[in-house]
Amino acid sequence: xxxxxxxxxxxxxxHNTETARNGYQITMFHRxxxxxxxxxxxxxxxxxxxxxxxxxxATYVVGELEVLI
Length: 69
Prior knowledge:
By secondary structure, the protein is of the alpha+beta class. It is about 40% helix and about 30% strand. The longest helix has 15 residues, at about 55-69.
């Protein structure tokens, strides 16, 4: 579980992009070559999500938020 805590602090301190989906702001870390970017984001249950597509990551996070509201 230590890696999860590291990832949460990393995203909180090193996030470098934000996106919005259905009115929700999503903070994430974005890196990688232009043809193969990856994203790291933490959802509202503090689960680490690593994805190769911003749309997939944003949809997953917003889906989690909508389930809890």
